[in-house]
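Let us practice reading a record.
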Amino acid sequence: MNTIAKRLFMIAAVALLPSCSPPVIDISVASVGGRTRLTLSQDWGLIFSDKQTPCVREVSVRNGPDTYDRKNAVWLIETKGDVQCLDLATVAVGTVPNGWQQVVPLRAVRGRSYTVRTDGIGWGETHVTF
């Protein structure tokens, strides 16, 4: 293998290393009609953007930004039964989409900040104030 081919191979190998784990789930928060709506996406593109709807198994709103603990949830939904994850593009906090079950009903306090976390194929976190 000549020197140029070896260098190109090394560059390609280094570029593919991050693809060993799934990308972060991006969470954007918006207030729509008095409800807090979460919009989820994942960018699977290596070179160019390739945003897709993520496959999620759990969405939580919780106290405490440092560690994930279900006991701190003020709202928590997860997939029903044996389903590992479901595509989820948007969800209104406090609303349970089809195929999901509510584990912790919404108990958020107005004016207080919380951490929103999604888990599935990848994970993501952001903060929200109600």
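A brief commentary: The first helix runs from residue 3 to 16.
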